[in-house]
Design a protein that fits this description.
heterodimer; A: 176 residues; mainly beta; 2 domains; three-stranded antiparallel beta sheet; 2 helices; globular; B: mainly beta; 3 domains; 35% strand; elongated
Chain lengths: 176, 377
């Protein structure tokens, strides 16, 4: 076990967005294999959209341990992790935010630079489990349209958009 | 009904035919085979390792006992014949092909100064030799499930239905027509060579010390040799677990004394002392599940087998609201059934007014482990 104070980072698997950071003054010798012990049936994120409780499914959440950094603990949503397969590194988002717009039936995502995989969690503002959408972006693509299928027409939704190296974006729309 | 075991006997003046003399040899041989089969488990007993160098694979000399109780001796190191391998369709150069050993009886060359009844020279001995063969990928699984012989049977002659002993695996370069590596274990099939064992309900030493080891001391190999030794002494015995050195001595990692003392050079993990209090603390954030102390099984907490006490307070240190913003705690609690944190503040002077802002808390979790860890305790 490391002698340096540690912190535990919950992040979105594959994409690297940090969802939360906590500390344990007695860290176990080996970190838990998955994050389920700390998220239960899902991690409740209430910071992304006031009044909206986004429950991120445990299967999408990874866990790693790194040296403690108080500034990072108190601003986790400004961070993303890289080198997830080896020794993860936490960084602030480097560039401008992406833009999101809804033009029925598509969610249009515009990236400042080329991206990679896009993951979108769409949550009914009335609550319930999020609907997942994802798309792979080609290396030259900066505009992505995701068809918002399977939603209830007339219901209001919040789309939480995750793209590697971009801050999490939230777009509210009424399904049409 | 199976014929009982027959032991040859002779009487004075009897004319001994060849069959009676052969029966005396077979009786002892069959008895040894049954001993090997039922008091031991079959496999490699010494040597017989595959080594790769410069495109060639060499099998080291050694001894094995097959599942019929037959002893197979490879007296010298042997280079595997690559020409006998080149029969399989090659697709993936990383494919592992099993290498098998089986015993074969061969009549020895006739003795030149003896003759049979018809004057023809006949063999008076059997050579207990062997063959090496290669199998298709995955055939090691079949070799691990070979049918056992009948209880009275003697050892196999290796002529039909020979018992295969897995020696390891090779990979092959079909362009260069040569072997490229050897492996002792196939992770895909989860199969490796089997080594001889002992079938016994008691293992008793008369020396005052009993050693179990994963290899002989100083055996060549990638892993350290580990051992367990039970020793008696006038002051009380002990059981020692540790690494076995080339000198045959154990470096103790864990020692259990006869009086019950347990001495570990490392950390004891996993077990939580009954009747103890375990503690965890730190910083948690709104929406997560509070961590439990190290070693506490979440299932035990959920089932009520341990008593979980939690305490949370809003975390203020290093939380620096922007200028003219003021955070007022409105909620800081833990859902007792799930240990989920509910911690939020409001910023009453800034819009949207009274919107809850998720926040952090300092937490303390104390788990009382009952003295008896019985179900429902």
């Amino acid at each position: 076990m490391s002698q340096t104070p540690q912190m535990d980072v919950l992040y979105l698997k594959d994409l690297g967005h940090v969802l939360g950071i906590f500390t344990r003054n007695s860290e176990p010798g080996d970190i838990e294999a998955d994050a389920s012990a700390f998220v239960g049936d899902g991690l409740h994120l209430r910071a992304l959209k006031p009044g909206q409780d986004l429950v991120v499914p445990p299967a999408l959440i990874g866990l790693f341990r790194t040296d403690r950094n108080w500034r990072q603990i108190l601003s986790p949503l400004n961070l993303y992790a890289t080198h997830l397969d080896t020794a993860p590194v936490l960084s602030s988002f480097p560039g401008p935010a992406l833009t999101v717009a809804y033009a029925a039936p598509n969610l249009k995502i515009t990236l400042a630079n080329v991206g990679a995989t896009i993951q979108v969690l769409v949550l009914d503002t009335a609550g319930g489990a999020p609907v997942q959408f994802s798309a792979a972006v080609t290396t030259t693509q900066t505009n992505v349209s995701l068809a918002m299928t399977g939603l209830i027409v007339g219901h209001q939704y919040n789309a939480f958009v995750f793209v590697p190296a971009y801050p999490i974006a939230v777009q509210t729309f009424t399904a049409a | 009904m199976t014929t009982p075991i027959v032991r040859p006997t002779f009487y004075e003046g009897e004319i001994l035919p060849a069959s009676d003399l052969t029966a005396t040899v077979d009786y002892a041989r069959n008895q040894v085979a049954r001993h090997s089969r039922y008091l031991h488990s079959w496999g490699i007993s010494s040597g017989l390792t595959l080594k790769f160098a410069s495109g060639n694979v060499t099998l080291s000399a050694g001894v094995a006992i097959d599942g019929t109780g037959r002893e197979i001796v490879v007296p010298d190191d042997l280079q595997l014949d690559s020409t006998t391998f080149d029969v399989f369709p090659q697709v993936d150069p990383s494919t592992l092909y099993p290498v098998f050993l089986n015993g074969v009886d061969q009549p020895a060359p006739p003795s030149s100064n003896l003759s049979g009844a018809c004057g023809g020279a006949q063999s008076t001995a059997i050579q207990e030799t062997y063959t090496i063969s290669f199998g298709a990928p995955g055939s090691e699984l079949q070799a691990a499930a070979q049918p056992a012989p009948s209880i009275t049977d003697g050892p196999d002659g290796g002529v039909t239905g020979a018992w295969l002993i897995l020696l390891g695996f090779v990979t092959w370069d079909d362009t260069k027509k040569q072997f490229t590596s050897v492996a002792n274990f196939n992770k895909s099939s989860n199969v490796g060579p089997q080594y001889v064992g002992v079938n016994a309900s008691q293992v008793i030493s008369s020396s005052g010390s009993l050693l179990l080891a994963t290899h002989p001391p100083a055996a060549p190999g990638a892993n350290p040799v580990m051992g367990v030794q039970i020793q008696e002494a006038s002051t009380g015995g002990q059981m020692v677990f540790g690494e076995l050195g080339a000198d045959g001595k154990l470096t103790p990692a864990l020692t259990v004394k006869a009086n019950g003392d347990v001495i570990a050079t490392g950390q004891l993990k996993g077990a939580v002392t009954p009747g103890s209090m375990q503690v965890q603390s730190g910083i948690a954030f709104d929406g997560m599940i509070l961590p439990l102390p190290v070693g506490i099984d979440p299932a035990d907490a959920a089932a009520g087998k341990v008593t979980v006490h939690t305490h949370v307070t809003p975390h203020h240190e290093s939380v620096n609201p922007p200028v003219n913003h003021y955070y007022v705690p409105v909620e800081c609690r833990v859902d007792t059934s799930t240990r989920r944190v509910h911690c939020s503040v409001i910023d009453p002077l800034n819009p949207p007014p009274f919107a809850r802002i998720p926040a952090w808390c300092d937490y303390l979790v104390i788990v009382a482990v009952p003295a008896s860890q019985g179900s429902g305790s």
